[in-house]
Design goal:
The chain is mostly helical. It has helices at 10-18, 24-30, 35-39, 45-50, 57-74, 81-95, 129-133, 138-153, 156-179, 188-204, 208-224, 231-239, 246-254, 260-272, 276-281, 289-308, 312-325, 330-343, 347-363, 368-381, 384-397, 404-416; strands at 106-110, 117-121, 124-128. It has a three-stranded mixed sheet with strand order 1-3-2, with helices on both faces. A hairpin with a 2-residue loop joins strand 2 (117-121) and strand 3 (124-128). Helix 8 crosses helix 12, helix 9 packs antiparallel against helix 10 and helix 17 (312-325) runs antiparallel to helix 18 (330-343).
Length: 417
Amino acid sequence: MPRRMCHPVVPVIVACSLLALAGCEDLMKQLPAGTDRYLQTGISVGSAVMNRPTFTEADEERMAQENAKKYESSHQLWDDPLLDTYLNDVVQRLVAQARPRPFVYSIRVVNDASINAFTFGGGLLYVNAGLLARMENEAQLAMVLAHEIAHVTESHVTKGIEGSYGIQVLGQLAAQAAETSGKVTLPPALLQKTYEYSMKAAISGHGRASETEADVVGLEYMVKAGYDPREAPKTLEQLLKEYGDQGALENFFYGDHPTNKSRIAKLTGLVQSKYSQELASRKLLVNTDEFNRRTRELVVNVGKLDYERKRFKTAAAMFEKALAAKDNDPVLHYYLGKIALETESGPEASNRAIGHFVAAIKANEAFADAYREMGLAYFKLGDRKTAAMALEKYLSLSPGAKDADRIRRALADLQGS
């Protein structure tokens, strides 16, 4: 049966040929509802394909705001105004050196221990607590943020959406452009596609070319803002340390991202060539006291989140990092003692755990839970008398504890033997 012709014009033939020789009827089925009204304005199918619209900056801003609202409605953000202020100050320092775009940039921290950072475009940036907690200094933080800013300045989000959904998304934009008069309103179906793309890109990147470009451009922004570029490859090296959550690391590095080794090599090469003069002539920033102060509580929180998920190695790394900044924190010693008891066996592990519990009690003599755990550690060593003394102290400090009856029975057994 011969194909039904829509309009006897040459652009129709060109358009159909470009779409794998599909008939015009098939072509129209590929376009979203409403696109026919755009075509009926006198523009042929061929012209619609060849001159298809793209996201305007107003489209991108609206899309980013709507997607951010949707994301924040189902994800918990880290609530620390001082940390938010500090991070936004770093972002603005980087944006001042970036290619201008008419957006207000902001950064929010997601209360999630996994490794991630992403943007919805439009200047809206997000970083997971787990990624932020693994940074050793402000320069490494600056590289993470500069990378995400580069995704915005180079339009990687909108280009990625257009590339992923092609004529479907662009046809919806065409229909929207024909119907609206100044007010930017993106169709719900289009917003859903942009959200799905952004969430996928958050895990596996915007594609190798875009990720490499964001590394290179981000490094440029970082150096112009006065940060030491030698910390850029260290940012990736720091994330590659084995923290007991290799699956998340593989997602972050290997999805559609260039392999970690090639990224590190690329950045290292640029530091040694393009930025060697900067290193020789300028005093560049590595770290600040503000970075250490503002991130410490978050590092502890990430350790607790990882501990709850039984990612003990990651949790221990976070607690040790926080302990280096404040060595008399009883909570950190308590958790490190528990991890030693739960992940290791033998007298050496029990003695190491006891050392942490003693340090916790020294910092806070009323820390009841530390006495309970210390009692269990002494029991493992076979020292029933000292174990009983520690459990007695626990009950005296916390007589109404949920496990009080169970501990009393254990204590009676220890004292009756």
